[in-house]
Amino acid sequence: MNSKKTTVLIAPDKFKGSLTAMQVCRHIASGLNRFDNTIETLLHPLADGGEGSLQIMAQHLSLEKVTKEVENPVGRKVQASYYRSGQKAFVELAEASGLELLTQEERNPLRTSTTGTGQLIKDALYKGANEIFLFIGGSATNDAAMGIAHELGYRFLNKTGDVLAPTGENLIKVDKIDSSNILPVAKKAQFVILCDVDNPLFGPNGAAFVYAPQKGATEAAVHLLDKGLKNFAEVVQKQFGTKTDDIPGSGAAGGIGAGLTGLFNSRLESGFEAIMDITQLKEKIQKADIIISGEGKLDLQTLEGKVLKGVSNQAKIYRKPFVAFVGQNQLNRPESKTLGAQNIYAVLEKARDLDHAISSAGEILEELSYDFIKSYFTETKAASN
Q: DSSP characters for 331-349?
């Protein structure tokens, strides 16, 4: 088939509601090897730093999983996990503070808290971690990390000096922050908040207006939360001298970025960039002849970053041919061109309808990758003659 062994790097995101990132890798690899079983496939599942990122990290690295009973966003006991490696701990906000842990009736960001995530972090710190990587996304909360901070020793007081429960509805009531009992391990720790959105803390593009409705907030609740976040930022700045509201990403996950940056030794980083570095994606790209990535839906948001665009950018830097496999392509031809892919293959275009595309995505991906590699070798052979 092919005189020189070809190496193909397959580095997709999940196809949400259909296939995990690793399943996408395997189906594409299967189609490639059905055409030519000498092709070397490097399977490199990716995530964008949000939900599911921790599982992706665990597939690439030798991490120890720690499971602990903690509180969910409304205080119910749940089993939640984080991962550790040496003095690093990797925590996903959605594990203990995720929207999926709540019934429809329980979803109300006025009442929810990140306390459970704080309990996971506290456990990691007491077990020797001094660097906490927090993957944010999929949260049920809008508490500016008050729940996390409360677990690590902070107390939030109202005007009469009463301790407030660390929930979204109490952001507006915070008058003073008592930092006298912060856990020494938390004081020394470095927090890395992995985030891929640039929303400010409050205002029309802030945490409450953009994300709280998805978490069950009414219009009145959105306005109250927005005012609360503004009040919280003012108190933090007045007491600790840290201006947090205009840091890009400070409004992500209900103000987690602002809360942790204002109260702890923290920095915000791109979730995709961190995963790319930790999993050594660039090194794999340099070894490969062809780069493949993919995700469930290709739309304008894809072009703003995250996995597909991120891999495309790296392929361009190293001058490697790049091909995209997606569930559906919602871009027009000029928009699709800006992705920088030689070809974009969409499952939906080969399926009978959307239901068929979702249920049979794996086998359709195999057909598409077979078609791609067949045409690639045909064109390469023709060009060399």
A: --HHHHHTTT-SEEEEHHH
d(CA 258, CA 207): 10
Which tokens is 210 given?
């953009």
* Residues 273 and 195: beta-carbon distance below 8 Å: no
pLDDT tens across 207-247, in order? 999 999 999 999 999 999 999 999 999 999 999 999 998 88
pLDDT in tens, 33-58: 999 999 999 999 999 877 778 888 88
Average the pLDDT over each of 219-223, 331-335, 366-370 and give the range with the smallest value. Answer: 331-335
Structure tokens at 380: 């390469």
End-to-end Cα separation, the chain, in angstroms? 16
The pair of structure tokens assigned to 338 is 């800006």
Structural domains of the chain in order of their starting residue, each with its CATH number: 7-46+280-384 (3.40.50.10350), 53-272 (3.90.1510.10)
The tokens for 31 are: 């189609």
pTM summary value: 0.84
Q: Which two tokens stand for residue 369?
A: 């990758």
Burial of 377 (C-beta count, 10 Å sphere; 0-12/13-18/19+): middle
Contacts of 41 (CB under 8 A, 6+ apart): 7, 8, 10, 25, 28, 29, 32, 33
* pLDDT for 320 beyond 70: yes
Beta strand spans in the chain (E): 7-10, 40-43, 64-71, 77-85, 88-92, 131-135, 155-157, 176-178, 190-194, 266-269, 290-298, 322-329, 343-346
The rounded distance, in Å, linking the Cα atoms of 97 and 94 is 5
Which residue's entry shows tokens 């060399």? 384
Taking Cα atoms as reference points, which of 306, 347, 349 lies closest to residue 327? 347
For the record, the structure tokens of 148 come out as 């996390």
Cα separations in angstroms, 69 against 75, 79, 82, 152: 11, 5, 11, 17
Q: List Cα–Cα distances, 44 to 28, 32, 178, 285, 345, in angstroms.
A: 12, 15, 45, 10, 19
CB–CB of 253/139 below 8 Å?
yes
d(CA 153, CA 147): 10
Distinct helix (H) and strand (E) counts, the chain: 16, 13
DSSP run (H or E) holding 232:
helix 219-240
